[in-house]
Fold:
Amino acid sequence: MSEGKRKNKIYLVDVTNRDGVQTSRLGLAKLEKTMINIFLNEMGVFQSEFGFPYTHHEISYINANLELAEMGVIKPMRLEGWCPMIQREVENSFKLTKLKHVNLSISTSKQMTLGKFQGRKNREDVLKMMIQSLEKAKELGAETVGVNAEDASRTDDDYLIRFARTAKEYGATRFRYCDTLGYDDPFSIYQRAKMLAEEVNLPIEIHCHNDLGMAVACSVAGAKGAIDGGVDTYINTAINGMGERAGNADLVSVILAIKKSSGLHDKYILDERIDLSRAWKIAKYASYAFGVPLPINQVGVGENAFAHESGIHADGALKDRRNYELYDYEELGRGEPELVETGRQITVGEYAGIKGFRNVYDKLEIEFKNDEEATKILELARYANVHTQKPLTNDELKFIAAYPEQARKILTVTPLR
Ligand SMILES: [Zn+2]
Structure:
């Protein structure tokens, strides 16, 4: 491999707010999705796939977050919406929101084309739908358009090359290779990503699911293939691996795999903006927001990730941490003492009153100009809790106090009929 090829970079596109929230039994309030966008931005993630711009209940959230981006609160991370390749939905996405970045999706495998369209559309129709949606999105003002091949891993090479080449020809910014069913292994996805990079020469997103327990391994192998084939690559991640069925590629594990594994570190370049020290905070918050505890052995952020008990291991780790620890907990933002209140606690919920509320904000060292302002923020906090149904976190309370106008929009969910 020539040195030149290695100049291409690996960027991260996080899909927690899209794939994560469409998971069965799981979901996030719009305020929680907003906090995740803020934390992903702080972590240096390139792009957040932050929702479904054509669904009416997300419109206020989508527009308020785009406003936060314009204000510089969520910057420089891109906010991108996911949309199926259906003309009406593409039109709605741009009519209802101020979206600038979009990923358009359609199935490409024979299985799904036959199985989902039931003979109403063939694979030539799929190509036409892709061109129409892509042109429509560009016409309506999209600055970047990613084109997603759903079930790419079960799609034959010839068709996939044709699909990606056509996308490039009509102005797609990136091609997303979706291993929708987690069917690939690290060896197969490396080959396919490399082949697509060489044949099409368009940046490739790698989107992997964990049905065979290989989502992270496939993601980094696919990224390596894309770079060895000569293009930039964008790994799709989800915080704590949240996602449909067995989940998506875990954000923290993907970063660690690129930065620490023997074959990738120092050889492949991860976006320099990535700040691993935010890992602890974002994993804890997502766990709280989703209501899904972190497994004790979760990579990097699980309780046991740096715990040693057996005699030889404990002795070895104490003598030199490098004996039994591949990386340092401080790198992930761990090791700071956390204050846990063991006595009286005042929390903020939908039935909170002004006295308790002011006590909570006093502790956060946030002052209000007057009673009127405090009452206004309290009202917003009550509505926020109607959405989250659990005590508001300090970061959520700080956000509401700092950006009351945007918070109000995010909390506005009004059915049209
Ligand atoms: Zn997916």
